[in-house]
């Protein structure tokens, strides 16, 4: 059993450390002017991180240390969700359509 007197100081220390690291960037960015090229590159970070997080979650399945293809059901639901996002630009419609398609495929198959 974990002794709670050791647990909370570690949690608080990690929390303060993470806060200081993140807050330091906020303080630095106000005082430093980044070159135009760096500012242009930073605009593309969210667009590159999102697919890097979503694609492995949709396409890959890990079972006992072996990574395999997740299945056509998840791929089909993701493609429908992408089409709905492209046409409607509505996040709620995108999530709902992807989940409805996935549940429908799993229910009927």
UniProtKB/TrEMBL annotation:
Keywords: Membrane, Transmembrane, Transmembrane helix. The keyword Glycosyltransferase does not apply. It comes from the Bacteria. The lineage of its organism: Bacteria, Pseudomonadati, Thermodesulfobacteriota, Desulfovibrionia, Desulfovibrionales. It comes from Pseudodesulfovibrio nedwellii. This is AzlD domain-containing protein. The chain crosses the membrane at residues 6-29, 41-60, 66-86, 91-108.
């Amino acid at each position: 059993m974990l002794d709670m007197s050791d647990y909370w100081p570690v949690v608080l220390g990690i929390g303060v450390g993470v806060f200081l690291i993140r807050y330091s960037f906020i303080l630095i960015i106000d005082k430093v002017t980044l070159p135009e090229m760096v500012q242009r590159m930073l605009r593309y970070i969210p667009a590159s991180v999102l697919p890097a997080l979503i694609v492995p979650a949709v396409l890959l399945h890990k079972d006992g240390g072996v990574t395999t293809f997740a299945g056509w059901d998840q791929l089909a639901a993701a493609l429908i969700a992408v089409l709905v996002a492209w046409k409607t630009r509505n996040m709620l419609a995108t999530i709902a359509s992807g989940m409805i398609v996935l549940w429908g495929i799993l229910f009927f198959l």
